[in-house]
Amino acid sequence: MSTHAVLEKISFKDIAGIAFGSFMTAAAIQFIIAPAHLVTGGLSGIAIALHFTTPYPIWLWYMVLNIPIFIAGWKLVSMRFALYSFVGTISLTVFLGLLETLPVHLGINDLLLAAVFGGALSGCGVGTALMFRGSTGGLDIIAGIIHRLWGVNFGTTLLVTNGIVLITALITTNIELTLYSAITMVASAAMVNNVTSGFRTKKTVIIVSKKSEYIADAILHGMHRGCTYLVGKGAYTGQVENIIMVTTGKSEIPRLKELIFQLDHQAFLTITDTVEVYGRGFRPWDEDDA
């Protein structure tokens, strides 16, 4: 895709969302995590650890550490994701520098509270940036590549890579603070998962019933939901059945179950989480998403 086409797809709403996410992450670092001598995940965690052992500020370390990541990842992600991530990196760097100068002291003396709340706020910021198709830079870019290629969610990738950060924290602090930092990372990864996919998670229901036609008609006209027939054959009975597959929101599951069992109280169904859904009635596919 040409540079002109990419520029046309850039949205002010996305830019504002990425900047807001960067602000939340910077606030978590400067007001909660760093004052408690904890570290968070990703390059920001390494930047905090280096700040503890050198006279240089967090924002400077974060900017320096991101340079090789952008060089390595520039051609491996979409141009828009790279541009949005650059915006996120600059925003986080600026906010880290600005918030560092403010005389704000929240007075959180409990390390566990600082770890949980700081991690949750930081993860909310990172997840918000990702939700607006960008990132706050650093390992988020690597996570974006892995998510695009293999479908691994961002929080899981970041949690795995944070082992390096914990080793750095152990060297620069002590075992107690390192363990609390691990709690920070878990809270952050959980919030990233919730923001990027958890709040959009759908349910896919597989229904096996001898009254599949009646149930499908009720789903189509009663719930105004699409469904699909899958032809299946019972291993024991050898009988061919029309199996119904329907994907819907979590809030509609109670109504769907009631509808099914009213028509066939012997129906067999399974309900599973579906992290991402694209297509008619759901999210449109954007081939430029990272």
Number of strands: 4
The share of residues in helices is 55-70%
Biggest beta-sheet profile: 4 strands, antiparallel
Main-sheet strand order equals 2-3-1-4
Provide mean pLDDT, rounded: 83
* Parts with pLDDT < 50 across at least 5 consecutive residues: none
The N- and C-terminal alpha carbons lie at a distance of 14 Å
The assigned structural class equals alpha+beta
Shape: elongated
Show the helix and strand layout.
Blueprint (H helix, E strand, L loop, with lengths): L2 H7 L2 H22 L8 H12 L4 H16 L5 H22 L10 H21 L7 H12 L3 H19 L2 H22 L5 E7 L3 H11 L5 E6 L6 E9 L4 H11 L4 E7 L16
Antiparallel strand pairs: 1-3, 1-4, 2-3
Helix pairs in contact: 2-5, 2-6, 3-4, 3-8, 4-5, 6-9, 7-8, 8-9, 10-11
Short synopsis of the structure:
By secondary structure, the chain is of the alpha+beta class. It folds into 2 domains: 3-199, no CATH class; 202-274, Alpha-Beta Plaits (2-Layer Sandwich), CATH 3.30.70.
Explain this structure to me?
The chain is an alpha+beta fold. The protein has 2 domains: 197 residues, no CATH class; 73 residues, Alpha-Beta Plaits, CATH 3.30.70. Helices cover 60% and strands 10% of the residues. It contains 11 helices and 4 strands, in the order H-H-H-H-H-H-H-H-H-E-H-E-E-H-E. Strands 2-3-1-4 form a 4-stranded antiparallel β-sheet, covered by helices on one side. Strand 2 and strand 3 form a beta hairpin. Helix 2 runs parallel beside helix 5 and helix 2 runs antiparallel to helix 6. The model has no long low-confidence stretch (mean pLDDT 83).
